[in-house]
């Protein structure tokens, strides 16, 4: 047997007992080549007989994920038997540890059967290796059943490292519910803190999988307490989860966190917040989002307020409640964008209440906030054809306002009202679009 020179120079000065201690340490580090060479050295130069210490180290060194293998573990176990040695509990545990890295459920089952026949009990550490092997084989259900059985019976205190491993692996395959169950168990073992990496991955996976309970639980206990500062992408996923599950408080807190990092909110972010409020039946905060948007320079459009529209169109008294809310907000000196009025007027037409829609239209100047916008094309009265700059000091409808009204008017064939609105648009300097002309023409044809 050829023994490398560097191994000889390292081991020659050491006593045999010291060499065995070093052999065990190298095996624990998974240094398979060093262990192989050391065993050769002991056999040849120290004239040691093959023994369980050697075989234990050879098996344990197979924990190396690259140079180790389950096939080698099986070969060494067979060699032990061929040498007439009895496989003891230490050898069994070393083999279980190696098989936790290199999956071979057949060999593991044979080993467990051998232990049972020889009345060798699986140690608490051995149970951990068995569960780790099941996890690596993606036998998650069996692994979780084993964990619950051992914990509930008090046989084994499952260590934090194994629970963390199981949680990570479950999250990787989208099993958030099972991972959340293990998280509760993990929290009962505070001797080793849960890593930031695990918290981040859990929040990311829970929000991505729309697992509301886990998302809210982690956000409340880790983000609101400033323990975690999740990236913007995760925050937006949490916002979407809050919206889908009608949790405006969670959605609002996501906005708080994003606001502290100067995030530029886009229309879809506000829409999610509105949906959360509306789904929870909180109309006033939902309308307030439109106000916040306008104040932030993000002018709401028709698509933005769809959640509010769907809410109001199914409630007979919804438009009236919403309009009273706008008046209240106006009295509080809140900025009221025209879209807040438009969506209420649109819900009136959906409820076929044209008179109420027209009433709200006429009240727009008193409720809607003025826009700081030039009125173009106003002649200065001097015949020069030039335009003066005037600023609107009152709330004004926009093209969408008239198109909403004209849709219901055209359906009823009310030519008088169509003519009235056309003159209103001209007087207010509001440009019509193709839809406006289309609806006026349809009305006149009727």
TrEMBL record:
The keyword Repeat applies. Residues 233-364 form the Pentatricopeptide repeat-containing protein-mitochondrial domain. One of its GO terms (biological process) is mitochondria-nucleus signaling pathway. Pfam families: TPR_24. The keyword Repeat applies. PPR repeats lie at residues 266-300, 398-432. Keywords: Repeat. InterPro entries: PPR_rpt (IPR002885), TPR-like_helical_dom_sf (IPR011990), TPR_mt (IPR057027). Belongs to the CCM1 family. Binds to mitochondrial small subunit 15S rRNA. Regulates mitochondrial small subunit maturation by controlling 15S rRNA 5'-end processing. Localizes to the 5' precursor of the 15S rRNA in a position that is subsequently occupied by mS47 in the mature yeast mtSSU. Uses structure and sequence-specific RNA recognition, binding to a single-stranded region of the precursor and specifically recognizing bases -6 to -1. The exchange of Ccm1 for mS47 is coupled to the irreversible removal of precursor rRNA that is accompanied by conformational changes of the mitoribosomal proteins uS5m and mS26. PANTHER family: PENTATRICOPEPTIDE REPEAT-CONTAINING PROTEIN GUN1, CHLOROPLASTIC, PPR_LONG DOMAIN-CONTAINING PROTEIN. This is Pentatricopeptide repeat-containing protein-mitochondrial domain-containing protein. It comes from Aulographum hederae CBS 113979.
């Amino acid at each position: 047997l050829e023994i490398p020179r560097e191994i000889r120079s390292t081991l020659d000065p050491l006593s045999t007992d010291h060499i065995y201690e070093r052999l065990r340490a190298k095996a624990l580090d998974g240094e398979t080549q060093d262990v192989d060479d050391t065993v050769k050295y002991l056999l040849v130069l120290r004239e040691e007989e093959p023994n369980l210490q050697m075989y234990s180290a050879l098996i344990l060194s197979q924990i190396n994920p690259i140079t180790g293998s389950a096939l080698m573990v099986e070969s060494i176990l067979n060699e032990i038997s061929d040498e007439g040695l009895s496989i003891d509990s230490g050898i069994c545990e070393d083999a279980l540890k190696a098989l936790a890295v290199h999956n071979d459920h057949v060999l593991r089952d044979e080993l467990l059967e051998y232990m049972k026949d020889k009345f060798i009990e699986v140690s608490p550490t051995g149970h951990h290796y068995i569960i780790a092997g099941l996890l690596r084989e993606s036998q998650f259900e069996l692994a979780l059943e084993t964990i619950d059985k051992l914990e509930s019976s008090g046989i084994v205190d499952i260590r934090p490292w194994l629970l963390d491993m199981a949680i990570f692996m479950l999250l990787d395959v989208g099993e958030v519910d099972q991972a959340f169950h293990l998280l509760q168990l993990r929290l009962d073992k505070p001797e080793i803190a849960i890593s930031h990496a695990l918290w981040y991955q859990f929040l990311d996976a829970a929000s991505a999988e729309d697992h509301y309970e886990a998302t809210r639980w982690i956000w409340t206990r880790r983000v609101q307490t400033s323990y975690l500062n999740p990236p913007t992408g995760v925050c937006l996923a949490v916002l979407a989860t809050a919206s889908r599950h009608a949790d405006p408080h969670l959605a609002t807190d996501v906005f708080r966190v994003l606001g502290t990092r100067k995030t530029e909110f886009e229309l879809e972010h506000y829409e999610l917040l509105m949906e959360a409020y509306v789904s929870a039946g909180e109309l006033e905060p939902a309308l307030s989002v439109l106000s916040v948007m306008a104040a932030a320079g993000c002018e709401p459009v028709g698509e933005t307020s769809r959640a509010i529209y769907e809410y109001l169109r199914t409630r007979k008294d919804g438009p009236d409640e919403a309009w009273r809310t706008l008046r209240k907000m106006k009295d509080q000196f809140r900025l009221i964008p025209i879209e807040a009025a438009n969506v209420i007027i649109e819900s009136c037409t959906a409820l076929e209440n044209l008179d109420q829609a027209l009433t709200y239209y006429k009240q727009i100047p008193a409720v809607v906030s003025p826009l700081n916008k030039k009125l173009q094309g106003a002649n200065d009265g001097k015949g020069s054809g030039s335009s003066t700059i005037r600023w609107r000091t009152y709330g004004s409808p926009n093209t969408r306002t008239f198109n909403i009204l004209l849709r219901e008017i055209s359906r009823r064939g009310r030519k008088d009202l169509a003519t009235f609105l056309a003159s209103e648009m001209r007087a207010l300097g509001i440009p019509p679009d193709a839809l406006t002309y289309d609806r006026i023409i349809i009305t006149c044809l009727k």
